[in-house]
Design brief:
Family: Belongs to the transglutaminase-like superfamily. PNGase family.
Helix content: 25-40%
GO molecular function: metal ion binding; peptide-N4-(N-acetyl-beta-glucosaminyl)asparagine amidase activity
Oligomer: single chain
Radius of gyration: 39 Å
Shape: globular
Distance between the termini: 79 Å
Protein name: 4Fe-4S ferredoxin-type domain-containing protein
Keywords: Metal-binding, Zinc
Organism: Albugo candida
């Protein structure tokens, strides 16, 4: 058998296989001599010069000075052991850290290391050492810091040695997770988001390959840690990643991964302290490596602010070491010495805890065995049978058996369980008032049993509740006598399981009472048909759903015992899929002690049984242990949050399933598909193309040059009969299929909707490359779909099929278009010969394409050229557009244009990761560049025209990649006039919006809005809001319309995505609340109340109007706009039976374009004194706000010019200025009783204009 050796040398992790030896206990080992020989063959490093550390058994191998040997012997450190052990028996691996030759083995060991701060030896490196805690109390807070032993003894007067449980509890409670616990991959466009709770790393693993981008996403929690990770390969359109995860609290000796990075290129510098994988994941002959940092799982760095007198007393001696990889031999020996001290300290403190907890555990086991004996009392069983409709249950079970494959016993248990839950027993959260019958009572206190009834019913305690109405007291005894429960028929899980287990024994079932020490009880029933015990929870009406508590409820399970009259069994494994996590919480007693105690108790219980019964029990026990140790799979449909109990009660106990602690872990292989766009065969696409060319599509107005409907308009078309036409079509298809991929040929097919191809083809391009092709050797042609068949060869084999997301707003319900692009990586170029397009000197040449810049690494500096477009005659460049980085920190690019000696720079900059629509034309009238529908650069004169040209696009940067798609060339003399309109249409209809800001209750989220109409570029505003809800909030829908400033021939409303549950869906046409927003009104804030789900939401607008829908329960939450000039464009929810997890998407608001806004600007310009201007504007806002809130109140409709506030605010104005400003507010001058007043008359204008004035004034005041 072979095992894997991972050897870390000079920051690179090398892997190789080696034969293993196996000892008598099945442990895998390898001899030192063999390891040294393998290292010599790999690195040419002689054994006498090798010094390495085994990270499995922490043995140091090498030639050492005598003082080091003496130090190792005194501290029980293993050096030069003859055999090294492999860690995982299932997947043997030996991990070695080979020290650099400069790590001398003759360096003296620091003699006083035990009496100085560990930072003096290890610097900022986390090490495994005894943990001491210091409490520093300040007036406003209490801070906790940890320190090493020397600092605890020298630098502080109050410290405590922490036991392992205290240490891990402190990590979980106070520390940010240090270790990566899970790694997954996501693929798609460059802005693909990470799943919830994951962080996407910025490096694209497939940066230089065809197909979508692939990113690693990491998750951190405080319970698990990755100990290894490896990038396997990209092959067959898949990326494979292997990793191994361990529990923090059970693996003190392991090293975990604290950070991950990706390196591009074999010669890339490895960051300090990182380990790089030796195997490269090839991405189109481009090396991609994974590198990571390691640290001890339970290690820490001594806090340098622990001293009572300020700075650490040892700070002057602190080492500058920053990484484990920098340790020399003496540091490793000291590391292993203090590691041994930590492990010894942990063992001793756990032994003290065990001694305290063992009597408690033994008492619990004896109590459980005593409880179940009462279920064997014949009188109790008879009393139970009197309440059970046995014959009816048997009949129902017989019917159920006939309709399924279950056994009669199992069907009877199921029927009995349903009856007990639905008809017999009831759940009590709090009892009704015994005086007035009021349902609402509140818990007051707990007392002991007092009445005879309570004592005879064996009540363990009595809960006292007070009525909210009459204030009378009601007693709720917690009875333990199952016969008493047959009459009361109510309680919580304790009463349910107690009574139900008795009834099971009365029915003749072998039943066990199951105790979960985390506060729940239930029953197990033995199935004679399946030869195993079935989980049976009466208060949940669940049979054989053992993972309910861990997966459904989210419980942190530990000890679970099943008690019967004959035995007690530890059944915790049955109720978990994550045994390692459960084991980490079983810290009361040693597992070996518990196993021995259970065996001793069972021997005592079974000592008086017959040999036959003992044999039966033994057979069952062997079968059950085999079942318990089998891997359990998470069930798909039989687990859920807790059913019994009120929502509030379940939420307090965290058993509603909203906080599930279940996490998959272990050694996994993660495989991510690289090509998410389905590909088809050439034969299949060719067949469809032949049909399109011969018959045509369903659209008679199709603009596809290959469609029959457009081809028949050709003047030569009538001269061909059907046979000739079919032959010509087949010849044409054969020619193109020989050089173009299937994906490229698909671009020649007709589209069923108005996509980007339809828009561009409508302008009759001379050459049009959609760039949806695949790079499938030897086919490397880019198909031309203009009908001219000027296909272009991808000579430099630029990567293809890179996602370039487009949207179509023609249909608001449509998904984003599946669109790809060509990636121009550094040094690559695309050459297009234009001679075949027959461009004449009098014609203009137009170029249109979509473009996006992506960065490989931060390497291109300011003024560096990253992309050029050149028109050439031979070797002479006639015209050039040069995209140059102008702001390297912001990753911004501008365009410089040149025609002969004339230069011009664009007025706008482009930003990385943002798609743009570019238009470029030149003719005898000059050269024009436009971006997203705006002209940004112009060279007015073109000295000379040429009839033969070529076009070259080149990636000239070192670390910048250009994604290019839908490149079209036009030769129409009038196209120069249409260039702006085409660029604007492409931008408005197809360019993905600038990402809206996603904000949830917990802050910013890395999530993309899924509603295309919410895009700022859609030129739509929210016109109406439709809400559904009564007791709870059930649904929402936004209705959009084109902006007031935009002329639209289609005034029809555009409905956004509906988010609603089944209740809202059923009432889709009848919303509970429907609000029409006023002109220039938008939503700025969402608030509401929520508990386990949303109870209500309230939306607030910039006009300070609010509208609410839903109930009144839950806790308050609020999501506000990040800035004053941002609005909510869309809202998404997690939809189930209820709505939850609200996320609001915010986008920028344009400054209002209206005559009132321009008039206010003019009025403000007339006030040159800033302080007086602010005073006047504030008063104007106050008067108009009063009217908005109270439009019919006479005192707000009339302003007396002589009141002091008016004089203070407007006294500095002349008469004309005063009249103009108050008329803008809607107030007109009048005289009454010899005094001047300004009066507002209702009905003189539309109501929305009042709100609009307030908004404009508030906007202006904020600018002041």
């Amino acid at each position: 058998m072979n095992g894997r050796i991972l050897c870390i040398y000079r920051q690179i992790a090398y892997q190789f296989d080696a034969p293993l030896d196996e000892d008598v206990n099945g442990n895998h080992q390898i001899s030192i001599e063999l390891v040294q020989n393998l290292i010599f063959s790999l690195f040419s490093l002689p054994p006498e010069n090798q010094i390495f550390v085994s990270l499995n058994d922490f043995c140091v191998i090498g030639s050492f000075h005598e003082n080091m040997k003496l130090f190792a012997a005194e501290n029980a450190i293993s050096i030069n052991a003859p055999l090294l052990s492999f860690g995982n028996i299932a997947q043997p691996e030996l991990r070695l850290l080979l020290l650099d030759e400069t790590a001398s083995s003759s360096d003296p060991i620091c003699s006083d290391y035990a009496n100085i701060c560990t930072r003096c030896v290890f610097g900022d490196v986390s090490v495994l050492q005894p943990v001491y805690r210091s409490m520093k109390i300040t007036s406003d807070s209490q801070s906790i810091c940890v320190m090493c032993r020397a600092c605890a003894q020298s630098c502080t007067t109050a410290s405590k040695l922490l036991d392992p449980l205290e240490w891990h509890h402190m990590i979980a409670k106070n520390s940010h997770p240090s270790f990566i616990s899970s790694v997954i991959t996501v693929s798609g466009d460059s802005d693909v988001t990470a799943p919830e709770s994951y962080l996407k790393l910025p490096w694209d693993l497939n940066i230089m390959g065809s197909g979508p981008s692939v990113f690693l996403c990491v998750q951190r929690d405080k319970r698990r840690a990755l100990t290894s990770i490896d990038l396997v390969e990209i092959s067959n359109c898949q990326i494979q990643l292997t990793s191994e995860v361990v529990l923090l609290c059970r693996n003190n000796d392991a090293f975990g991964i604290t950070d991950l990075r990706v390196l591009y290129g074999k010669d890339a510098e490895i960051p300090k302290g990182y380990i790089r994988s030796s195997t490269s994941m090839m991405s189109d002959n481009f090396d991609v490596y994974l590198c990571y940092q390691l640290a001890p799982l339970s290690g820490f760095v001594c806090n340098n602010e622990h001293s009572d007198i300020g700075e650490c007393l040892f700070s002057s001696r602190f080492s500058t070491t920053r990484s484990l990889l920098d340790f020399d031999v003496s540091q490793w020996l000291i590391f292993l010495s203090i590691r041994a001290a930590r492990l010894k300290s942990d063992r001793e403190m756990m032994q003290i805890r065990y001694k305290e907890k063992e009597p408690e555990m033994l008492s619990r086991l004896h109590a459980g065995l005593g409880r179940v004996l009462q279920y064997e009392d014949p009188s109790m069983q008879q009393a139970a049978r009197m309440h059970i409709p046995i014959e009816r249950l048997k009949r129902d079970a017989a019917l159920a058996v006939s309709d399924s494959n279950s056994s009669m016993d199992e069907a009877l248990v199921r029927q009995f369980l349903h009856w007990f839950k639905a008809e017999f027993f009831t759940w009590t959260n709090q009892p009704k008032c015994s005086s007035c019958g009021n349902e609402k009572t509140r818990y007051l206190r707990t007392e002991g049993p007092q009445s005879d009834d309570e004592i005879q019913g064996n009540a363990s305690r009595v809960e006292i509740y007070e009525c909210d109405v009459c204030h009378g007291l009601t007693r709720f005894p917690r009875y333990n006598n199952p016969v008493k429960l047959l009459s009361t028929r109510t309680g919580r899980c304790g009463e349910w399981a107690n009574c139900f287990t008795l009834c099971c024994r009365a029915m003749g079932f072998d039943a066990r009472y199951v105790l979960d020490v985390t506060d729940h009880v239930w029953t197990e029933v033995y199935s004679t048909a399946q030869y195993r015990w079935l989980h049976c929870d009466s208060c949940e009406d669940q049979l054989d759903a053992p993972l309910t508590y861990e997966v459904g409820w989210g419980k942190n399970l530990s000890y679970i015992f099943a008690f019967s009259k004959d035995q007690v069994v530890d059944v915790a494994r049955r109720y978990t899929k994550d045994w390692e996590s459960v084991l980490s919480r079983r810290v009361d007693v040693p597992e070996e002690w518990l196993e021995q105690v259970l065996e001793r108790l069972n021997v005592e219980k079974q000592s008086r049984l017959s040999a036959c019964r003992i044999a039966t029990l033994k057979e069952r026990h062997v079968s059950e242990q085999r079942e318990l140790h089998e891997e359990r799979k998470k069930p798909s449909g039989n687990v859920q949050g807790r059913v019994s109990g009120s929502a509030e009660w379940k939420r307090v106990r965290e058993e509603d399933g909203l906080k599930s602690t279940f996490v998959d872990h272990g050694c996994v292989k993660l495989i991510s598909r690289l090509d998410s766009i389905k590909t088809v065969s050439v034969q299949h696409v060719a067949k469809e193309l032949c049909q399109v060319m011969t018959i045509g599509c369903k659209n008679p107005d199709c603009v596809n040059p290959y469609c029959f409907h457009l081809r028949k308009q050709n003047s030569d078309f009538a001269s061909y009969d059907a046979t000739d036409m079919l032959v010509r079509n087949l010849q044409s298809i054969s020619a193109v299929s020989g050089v173009v991929s299937a994906a490229g040929i698909s671009s020649l097919l007709c589209s069923e909707k108005s996509d980007i191809r339809s828009v561009i083809l409508r302008h009759s391009p001379s050459l049009y490359l959609p760039m949806q092709d695949e790079l499938v050797p030897p086919k490397c042609m880019l198909v031309d779909i203009s009908g001219k068949e000027n296909h272009v060869e991808n000579i430099d084999r630029c990567p293809m099929r890179k996602p370039f997301r487009l949207y179509s707003l023609a249909d608001s319900d449509s998904d984003s278009e599946r669109n790809c692009s060509l990636a121009m990586v550094p040094g690559k170029k695309l050459q297009i010969a234009l001679s075949g397009t027959q461009i004449e000197s009098s014609q203009s040449i137009g170029l249109s394409f979509l473009l996006r810049f992506e960065q490989l690494l931060l390497g291109d500096t300011e003024n560096a050229s990253v992309f050029t477009i050149s028109f050439q005659q031979g070797e002479n460049v006639i015209a050039l557009a040069d995209f140059v980085i102008v702001k390297s920190s912001e990753r911004a690019v501008a365009v410089n244009m040149r025609m002969k000696s004339e230069w011009c720079s664009a007025k706008q900059v482009l930003h990385f990761h943002e798609a743009i629509a570019v238009g470029l034309s030149f003719s005898k009238n000059g050269m024009i560049l436009c971006q997203n529908g705006e002209s940004v650069a112009t060279i007015p004169a073109f000295p000379q025209c040429f009839s033969v040209l070529s076009l070259t696009l080149c990636a000239t940067g070192k670390q910048t990649i250009i994604l290019l798609t839908h490149l079209a060339i036009f030769t129409s003399p009038t196209f120069e006039e249409k260039l702006l309109s085409l660029s604007a249409e492409l931008y408005r209809r197809f360019i993905p919006w600038k990402s809206l800001k996603a904000i949830s209750v917990n802050g910013a989220r890395a999530k993309l809005c899924q509603d295309p109409i919410a895009s700022v570029q859609s030129s739509c505003r929210i016109a109406r809001v439709r809400l559904w809800g009564e007791t709870f909030f059930n649904g929402i829908e936004f209705v959009y319309e084109r902006d007031q400033t935009e002329t639209s021939t289609d005034p029809a409303p555009i409905y956004g995505t509906f988010f609603g549950n089944s209740i809202a869906s059923a009432l889709r046409e009848i919303p509970t609340v429907e609000v029409t927003l006023m002109p220039f009104e938008f939503i700025t804030e969402m608030s509401g109340h929520k508990g386990a789900w949303l109870d209500s939401i309230t939306l607030r607008t910039n006009f300070k109007r609010t509208f609410m829908c839903g109930g009144s329960g839950g806790d308050f939450f609020k999501i506000s706009s990040p800035s004053f000039m941002e609005e909510i464009r869309s809202i998404e929810f997690a939809v189930g039976d209820h709505l939850n997890d609200p996320i609001a998407f915010f986008g920028p608001v344009k400054a209002p374009e209206h005559a009132m806004a321009r008039e206010l600007d003019d009025l403000c310009r007339s006030l040159t004194d800033a302080s007086k201007r602010a005073l006047t504007l504030t008063a104007m806002q106050r008067y108009v706000e009063n009217l908005c809130g109270n439009p019919t109140e006479p005192k707000y409709q009339r302003i007396r010019a002589g009141n002091p506030y008016f004089v203070e605010s407007f006294g500095h104005l002349n008469s004309l200025q005063l009249k103009l400003k108050l008329r803008w507010c809607g107030f007109y001058e009048e005289e009454s009783d010899g005094q001047v007043y300004y009066h507002w008359k209702e009905g003189k204008e539309e109501r929305w204009m009042l709100y609009f004035r307030v908004y404009l004034l508030e906007l202006r005041n904020r600018c002041e």
